[in-house]
Amino acid sequence: MSNDTGAIARQRHYTSLRNADREVLRGTWSIGYGDPGFTTQFGTPPEPSEHHSATSIRKIITDALWLHRGACLACPWEGPDRRRRDAAIEDAHDHTHPEWRSLPIMDRASGRGARMWWQHVRARYPQGWFDAGGPLRLYAEPPFDRHEAGAAPGGGFILHTTRRKSKPSSAIQLALE
Ligand SMILES: [Zn+2]
């Protein structure tokens, strides 16, 4: 049993459990599927990052109960237990990019005008933000509703926010016009 925390230490321990039972593997913290640093049980664990980098770890208590934590690829930090992976990813960004919650939430680019859109996004985000692996915030448009690892321009996450429903009063207003 390893008590070392952080995504790298967890994944090292997980990939060392060569002949463990399935139940033991399920109950061992490991990097979430598709999140930065993910490998299978037989993979090579990732090398530590130079900069604090967001990812998630998870363990399976029962089929219906998975626990997720935000984690970092550079240090031993871990977030609290969460039932949803996206909440854990957000915790991780509170650690790696504490100002992310104050950044503007953008609409996803439509096919035409993608270059203009990108200039607009860049102008509204801090200089050098994406080059440093910072996340991009977008309004969730199905099927894109799960935070997407590696999808921001510099390889950071796209973090989705559900658009607030328009207020009933304005809907009534429209109906009256
Ligand atoms: Zn860190």
Summarize it.
Residues 151-177 are annotated as: Disordered. With 177 residues, this protein is of the alpha+beta class.
List keywords for this structure.
177 residues, DUF6349, binds zinc ion, three-stranded antiparallel sheet, 2 domains, alpha+beta, two-stranded parallel sheet
- The structural class is alpha+beta
Percent helix: 25-40%
The coarse silhouette is elongated
H/E topology pattern = HHEEEHHEEH
In round numbers, the mean pLDDT is: 91
Residue fraction in strands: 15-25%
Main beta sheet strand tally, sense and closure: 3 strands, antiparallel
Q: State the low-pLDDT regions, or none.
A: none
* Bound small molecules, deduplicated: zinc ion
Spatial ordering of strands, largest sheet: 1-2-3
Gyration radius, in Å: 19 Å
Q: What is the total number of structural domains? A: 2
Termini separation (Å)? 67 Å
Our count of helices gives 5
Topology, number of strands: 5
Could you explain how this protein is built, in words?
The chain is of the alpha+beta class and 177 residues long. The model has no long low-confidence stretch (mean pLDDT 91). A 3-stranded antiparallel beta sheet has the order 1-2-3. A two-stranded parallel sheet has the order 4-5. It is built from 5 helices and 5 strands; from the N terminus they run H-H-E-E-E-H-H-E-E-H. It has 2 domains: 7-96, no CATH class; 99-161, no CATH class. It is elongated, with a radius of gyration of 19 Å. Strand 2 and strand 3 form a beta hairpin. 26% of the residues lie in helices and 15% in strands. The protein has helices spanning 7-15, 22-26, 85-96, 114-124, 168-176; strands at residues 30-31, 54-62, 65-72, 136-139, 158-161. Residues 52, 72, 74-75, 77, 95 line the site of zinc ion (ZN). InterPro entries: DUF6349 (IPR045930). Residues 168-177 have a biased composition (Polar residues).
